[in-house]
Specification:
CATH class of the domain at 85-177: Mainly Alpha
Number of helices: 8
CATH topology of the domain at 85-177: Arc Repressor Mutant, subunit A
Oligomer: single chain
Distance between the termini: 143 Å
Length: 228
């Protein structure tokens, strides 16, 4: 096999950690390395080896270009493989609330309308919608029509007429802002929450009053009378 003779030997792995490589230089180097991979007779086998998973759950070759794919591409493929969803058995959908929300979702899609049709509050309806998508093996950002099509394939909507939308309605709506609560009547203040102010009491006289003792006021009055 004749490769690109002008390509550096380490083009598939890049320079070592002590050499600075800019983003443009890296992209150009990886593009030239991929061109070599495309003409390699063992490209598929090379990719299969490098993208295989070790016992620790990591790629066999986490760095570099292998089998015509960059490291980032192979890591993204590994993440997607880890998040493959498996649909739950049909009996997991048999609860009354899940069945009511699924039927309501087939008839309407606005959060408050779905909640009213299912006979639950909007928070419960949205939570059940998320749970239904998870049980169906679908991501939360799936469209409503796609989710209902999968539910029909599973036999969960037998005899239920689906009201179609334009295909852009999400199966699980974004967080719904509930209307503000109407304040009720003001209740009487709770005794424990009222600040209790200390009551100042008059000080007791420290002078002990003896029987027959004249008061200060009476002494003043008698003195003034004698002077007159």
């Amino acid at each position: 096999m004749m490769g690109d003779l002008s390509l550096p030997v380490g083009a598939h792995h890049g320079p070592d950690a002590f050499v600075v490589e800019g983003q443009k230089e890296r992209i150009a180097r990886e593009a030239r390395a991929i061109e070599v991979c495309l003409s390699c007779p063992v490209m598929v086998q090379c990719d299969a080896y490098a993208s295989s998973v070790t016992a620790e759950g990591k790629l066999a070759e986490p760095d570099g270009v292998w089998g015509g794919r960059r490291s980032l591409e192979r890591h993204k493929a590994l993440i997607r493989a880890r998040h493959v969803r498996v649909a739950a058995p049909r009996d997991r959908f048999a609860t009354v609330q899940k069945r009511a929300v699924l039927v309501a979702l087939a008839r309407c899609w606005e959060p408050f309308e779905v909640a009213a049709a299912a006979g639950v509050d909007v928070r419960t309806a949205n939570w059940q919608r998320s749970s239904l998508m998870r049980l169906l093996g679908l991501p939360k950002d799936v469209s409503r029509m796609r989710a209902l099509a999968v539910a029909r394939e599973r036999g969960l909507l037998d005899g239920v007429a689906v009201v179609a939308d334009d295909g852009s309605v999400p199966a699980v709506p974004p967080p719904t802002k509930l209307p503000p609560e109407v304040p009720g009547p003001v209740s009487a203040p709770v005794l424990s929450s009222v600040a209790v102010l200390p009551v100042r009491r008059s000080r007791r006289s420290r002078v002990r009053v003896m029987p027959g003792q004249l008061s200060f006021e009476s002494l003043i009055s008698s003195s003034l009378g004698a002077a007159a």
